[in-house]
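Predict the holo structure. Ligand: zinc ion.
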Amino acid sequence: MGEIYSCCENPQITYLAPVNINIDERTIGSVDVWRCAACKKKFCEEKQLGIDSITDIVGMPRIEGGEKWGVIVSQLQKGKDKWKLVRLKQNGIIKYETADEKILDLKIEDYKIIDDYHTSFLVEDHLNKAVEI
Ligand SMILES: [Zn+2]
C-alpha cells in the first residue's frame, strides 16, 4: 500500500460538484470534483459511465501547486476514449497516452492544449455543467 497523500495538515475534504461529459447530448462519463475546505485544493476523479472506478490511488489523487485539473479531448478517438482527465501545468509539454498506448507530446499554453487534433478545458470552469465533446 502506498503512502497516503494529504493536501495539508488538517484535510477537510467534501464533495463539490460533478462535470458531465456528453457526446451528442448523451452523458458518457463525468468528473467528480472534491475540495479541501482547509487548503482549498481540488481533487478530481474520472468516472466512465457503467464502469466502476478504476483508480487505485489511496486517498485523494495528488495535484502539485501550479497545476490545474483539465480534460483533454481527442478528435482521433470515439466514445469513452475521446476524453481523459489530466493535470495541466500553465505552460510546457504534457505526455499524453492515447487509447492505443502511444505517447504524444502535447503543447500547453496558459493551461490549454495547443494541437491540431486535441483540445482541452479546465474542470473548474464547468462545475455542475455538462460539456459536449
Ligand atoms: Zn487540504
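The first strand starts at residue 13 and ends at 23. The pocket of zinc ion is lined by residues 7-8, 11, 36, 38-39, 41 (CB under 6 Å).
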